[in-house]
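Run log // design_07
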């Protein structure tokens, strides 16, 4: 059995693969090691995942936001080991997961626009270039957290149109103190900011919202995609809820820069399933051939 996890800042999609015809789906909170520790991960999995799956996974592939450095990967691994003591556990970045899911074994540029944002150049086997994503405070351009941050700033500074401010007040009933308390004293401020993309989506026909999202995507292309020397020569892919739900605006921004997006998917999990099934079948074919030769 193979267990695959695709973990963003907000949620984790899990797939237990028994065979091509028997794949089971589960979902938990997101496990970003910058915001959560190993014990919290273990407790959450014991409550939300373990009761619903068979024990005995042989391989666990965890792709997660914040898992780009060894120290962060160890936090995730230490949370998984007590749950899957007999499994081979591999923790990788969500960016590698996106690249494998979107590009398969071909080269291309893989981009994530979800709660956070990131991008990379993938050569079909590994990530060869990565423009650093600096998180919701210093980066994450084009992401849900970024869009939410710009929206909140415009509303609190009274720069947003009056009808937008009125609709916001009616929907959330937040005052300035409420918002700042959430941002500076509560957990997961990036998730809080990203939650306002629902409001943006509900009112996307408004010119202010159109401009807000358009400008956020412009900054993402200019600070991320256009930094790759071969961005006009290879296929460019996007994954993430923000890319998916604002796909029309995203495609227009790409077109303005002479770029055609190859594909936009809400989640990379389906692509990851196919990637690992192909790898598993390839390994078994090689092993079978080796056994015959012996």
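design_07 sequence
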């Amino acid at each position: 059995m193979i267990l695959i996890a695709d973990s963003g800042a907000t949620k984790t999609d899990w797939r237990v693969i028994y065979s091509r015809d028997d794949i089971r789906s589960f979902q938990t909170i997101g496990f970003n090691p910058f915001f959560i520790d190993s014990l919290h991960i273990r407790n959450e999995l014991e409550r939300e995942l373990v009761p619903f799956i068979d024990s005995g996974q042989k391989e666990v592939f965890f792709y997660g936001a914040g898992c780009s450095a060894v120290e962060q990967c160890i936090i995730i691994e230490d949370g998984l080991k007590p749950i899957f003591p007999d499994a081979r556990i591999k923790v990788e970045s969500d960016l590698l997961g996106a690249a494998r899911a979107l590009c398969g074994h071909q080269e291309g540029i893989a981009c994530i626009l979800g709660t956070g944002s990131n991008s990379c150049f993938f050569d079909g086997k590994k990530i060869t270039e990565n423009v650093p994503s600096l998180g919701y405070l210093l980066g994450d351009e084009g992401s849900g957290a970024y869009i939410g941050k710009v929206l909140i700033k415009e509303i609190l500074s009274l720069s947003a149109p009056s009808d937008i401010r009125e609709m916001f007040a009616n929907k959330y009933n937040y005052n300035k103190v409420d918002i700042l308390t959430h941002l500076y004293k509560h957990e997961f401020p990036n998730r809080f900011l990203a939650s306002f993309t629902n409001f943006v989506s509900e009112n996307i026909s408004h010119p202010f919202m159109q401009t807000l999202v358009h400008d956020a995507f412009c900054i993402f292309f200019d600070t991320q995609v256009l930094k790759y020397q071969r961005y006009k020569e290879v296929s460019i892919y996007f994954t993430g809820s923000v890319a998916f739900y604002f796909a029309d605006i995203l495609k227009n921004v790409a077109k303005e820069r002479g770029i055609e997006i190859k594909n936009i998917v809400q989640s990379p999990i389906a692509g990851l399933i196919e990637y690992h099934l192909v790898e598993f079948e390839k390994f078994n074919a090689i092993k079978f051939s080796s056994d015959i030769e012996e």
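Residues 108-265 form a domain with the Nucleotidyltransferase; domain 5 fold (CATH 3.30.420.40).
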